[in-house]
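Quick entry between incubations.
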Amino acid sequence: MTTWLITGASSGLGAALARAVLHRGDNAVVTARNTEHLHDLTTAYPDTALAVPLEIGDHAQVVAAVDVATSRFGALTYW
Amino acid sequence: MTTIGVTALRDSSTWKRRGERLVRASGNEYTIVRPGWFDMNDDDQLAIAPRQGDSHQTGTPADGVIARSQIARVLVDSLTNPDAAHKTFELVAARGLEQDDLRPVFAALPADPDGALDGPGDVANLALEDEPASVRADLDRTRTQH
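Done. Structure below.
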């Protein structure tokens, strides 16, 4: 199964990318500073979308996000 | 992803042009997508109609428009479709329905020639010798790393 990690997934092109990969049936780890803004995605794709809080400039959060992602879906294919 | 009109000599496209050249020189697999104006397409303007040559440079939506959702689809498909490899194109929409399968769309596009600085048929771009020495050095380093 292909798994994507998409930052800035709460709006704009990030949200569009998340919808595109989820529509294909792929897994998507969708991140944003505020995961409440990702609720629509995780509601529409409860089995394949995983929302993770992430401020991209915070290294510890990046490491934690990848850990959560790989625990849920295994290896990331694209990020 | 850069932008339609990236080869125009505008301040806003300077680093996008340099980025494209570094990607082509990298030896990595790539697709360079130059989208038109986001979400300014009409409701019946859904056919994905890439162009090459970057010849539309008015800096207005007249150069081409495309839905954000279609940009996302093309970016994702480019990563997963070998027919998109080593290609540079402007991404705009034409009147008509969106294609179910983008493979023929990608396959119809000529690839960037080996060693090319710019995309196929690109209008005259900034000559490499007119770039600052640091930019030329970055490009040389990238070329020699593969």
